[in-house]
Design brief:
single chain, Rossmann fold, 2 domains, about 45% helix
């Protein structure tokens, strides 16, 4: 019996992945360094703190890891505060989960602060019992412990939790953790979509299709 939903944010609830495009190089350029064109792909599966550590070590930055993370955050913060839209149909899905008394939490590879700002601006924050990040739970989304930690904090069993995600690597991890996974299409996962459809328990082109399956 399903009792809770774990929603990813970027690329799932929020149409925000373009905001993160090339953000590593945009930060490096702000401090006078030109990074490689493939920096985005190299950091694709990293949390914000992991990306900051990678950049500090790779480019021998004088800034601390926290300063790098803050610099990246500053670049994208305005978009979360003012402009990133919600995916079409996502509000109704969240409202339906709430009406059915499911626990609702968010799990982001970014920062809790940014997630909170976006959800508050979109008038969705009050639906969520908690917002988790890879940093706060202590694991990234390639580690099954990340989802197991969230499920435990919700006082649920893994079979009682649905994970809604767009990224192939996170979908694989959530499935391996034992969660029921609903995949949502995003332009960024187009190249992985066929594989995602073969792994996720359910897959949807949009939240509009998902609404009747909550």
């Amino acid at each position: 019996m399903i009792k809770g939903y774990i929603f990813d944010l970027d690329g799932t609830l929020l149409d925000s992945l373009n905001v993160w495009d090339n953000v590593g190089n945009r930060y490096l350029q702000s401090i006078g360094i030109q990074g490689p064109d493939d920096l985005d792909s190299l950091m694709e599966h990293m949390s914000l703190q992991e990306a900051a550590l990678y950049m500090k070590n790779t480019f021998v930055l004088t800034q601390s890891v926290n300063e790098v993370a803050l610099g990246i955050t500053y670049i994208i913060e305005e978009a979360y505060e003012k402009s990133i839209p919600l995916k079409i149909g996502a509000r109704k899905v969240i409202e339906k989960c709430f009406d059915k008394n499911y626990q609702i939490v968010a799990f982001t590879a970014g920062s809790v602060e940014l997630a909170t700002k976006a959800l508050m601006r979109l008038n969705l924050f009050h639906y969520f019992q908690n917002i988790y990040s890879c940093q706060t739970c202590g694991y990234n989304k390639t580690e099954i412990e990340s989802y197991l930690t969230l499920v435990k904090s919700m006082n649920l069993k893994v079979k009682e939790c649905v994970v809604v995600e767009d990224a192939l690597y996170a979908i694989e991890t959530a499935v391996n953790a034992g969660c029921y996974v609903k995949a949502i299409y995003d332009q960024a996962n187009q190249k992985d979509w066929d594989k995602i459809c073969g792994i996720a328990h359910e897959h949807y082109e949009s939240f509009i299709e998902m609404e009747d399956r909550i």
